């Protein structure tokens, strides 16, 4: 880390926090506004899919695009600006076809903002303290993801709120102006070939697996847990609050888990989080709808969310230069893939095996995947 890094670090973390907050403020806003216009639920889902699919498709190309743009920081600024412009377009309450034009632009640009944030912060992480450093970064990111939708309490759920989200993102973009490109974030020139990709793919087993596992778990928690909660006798408001409880735990867990990884090894931290996820998945339906379900869900959310941070820590430890660029892009892609498959598979399991079926399936997944990821990380140097 350079002498000027501390200033650049915190400016960039603040910028990333604004970017995440603005983007996640727009996610529930779009769904509610389309529904209030009388659009069919299937069409609302199709719009959301257009955003997520373009995000998933753009993530693997981040290193190549950043190389052409002159670096990860420059791409972060450009994608943040495009993201804000797309939101300002949505703030005009356009005709439906324009939603399906602006939505994919929003998906791709917001994903590039996210992937470049991870790449830049990963390059700034000091050796030997990656866990704590990235834990702090993920604490702010998690707070922004949870706090973004809460901003709608201030603005109201109306089209003008897109303009407020755009302003938040533009503030973050301005904060990056004094930040210099850290060495090793993204190569300015990169040639992708099979010989270059093969060693990266082998070393990505633990980081990408952790990211995919986290995406799957958070997809289930956001979309399926509330449905399961209704079947367990919880009210609609309580069921919707599950996401708040898991998100709260996600914010609190990042730094402690990062410290644990620095002190005892990433492989042990991965296994510990997996055990907590398995135990929580089995216990929360037993405790629902009682009050003890809320602290348990917070612990569950913290353990599940920290798995992504541990994957990021492992990627930063293992990769440098062009390999790091490809590794971080792979990490983001794996998370998005996990999120895309987690919710529908969780819903199918809940429907096919009502009762304890989903809980048992999640526990088995967490323990088996956690053990596999821990062994993969251990075999490659902890």
Automatic annotation (TrEMBL):
It holds the Pfam family MFS_1. GO terms for molecular function: transmembrane transporter activity. Residues 203-382 form the Major facilitator superfamily (MFS) profile domain. InterPro entries: MFS, MFS_dom, MFS_trans_sf. The chain crosses the membrane at residues 9-34, 46-66, 78-100, 106-127, 134-155, 161-179, 200-225, 237-257, 269-287, 293-313, 325-350, 356-378. Keywords: Membrane, Transmembrane, Transmembrane helix. PROSITE patterns: MFS. The keyword Transmembrane helix applies. GO terms for cellular component: plasma membrane. This is MFS transporter.
């Amino acid at each position: 880390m350079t002498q000027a890094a501390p200033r650049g670090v915190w400016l960039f973390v603040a910028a990333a926090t604004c970017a995440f907050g603005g983007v996640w403020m727009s996610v529930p806003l779009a769904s509610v506004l389309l529904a209030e216009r009388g659009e069919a639920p299937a069409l609302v889902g199709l719009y959301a899919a257009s955003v997520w699919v373009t995000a998933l498709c753009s993530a693997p190309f981040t290193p190549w695009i950043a190389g052409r743009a002159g670096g990860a920081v420059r791409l972060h600024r450009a994608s943040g600006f495009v993201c804000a412009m797309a939101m300002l377009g949505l703030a005009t309450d356009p005709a439906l076809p324009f939603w399906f034009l602006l939505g994919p632009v929003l998906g791709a640009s917001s994903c590039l903002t996210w992937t470049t944030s991870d790449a830049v912060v990963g390059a700034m992480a000091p050796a030997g303290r990656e866990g704590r450093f990235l834990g702090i970064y993920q604490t702010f990111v998690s707070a922004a993801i949870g706090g973004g939708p809460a901003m709608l309490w201030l603005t109201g759920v109306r089209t003008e709120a897109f303009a407020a989200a755009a302003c938040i993102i533009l503030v973050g973009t301005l904060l990056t102006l004094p930040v210099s490109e850290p060495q090793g974030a993204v190569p300015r020139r990169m040639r992708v070939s099979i010989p270059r990709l093969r060693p990266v793919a082998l070393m990505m087993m633990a980081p990408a697996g952790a990211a995919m596992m986290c995406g799957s778990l958070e997809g289930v928690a956001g979309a399926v847990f509330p449905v399961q909660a209704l079947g367990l006798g919880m009210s609609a408001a309580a069921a919707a609050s599950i996401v708040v409880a898991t998100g709260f735990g996600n914010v609190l867990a990042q730094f402690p888990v990062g410290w644990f990884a620095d002190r005892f090894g990433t492989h042990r931290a991965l296994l510990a989080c997996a055990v907590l996820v398995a135990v929580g998945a089995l216990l929360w339906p037993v405790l629902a709808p009682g009050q003890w379900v809320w602290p348990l869900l917070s612990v569950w959310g913290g353990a599940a969310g920290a798995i992504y941070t541990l994957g990021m820590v492992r990627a930063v430890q293992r990769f440098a230069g062009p390999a790091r660029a490809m590794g971080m892009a792979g990490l983001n892609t794996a998370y998005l893939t996990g999120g895309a498959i987690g919710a529908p598979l969780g819903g199918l399991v809940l429907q096919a095996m009502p009762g304890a079926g989903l809980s048992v399936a999640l526990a088995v997944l967490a323990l088996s995947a956690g053990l596999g990821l821990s062994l993969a990380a251990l075999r490659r140097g902890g």
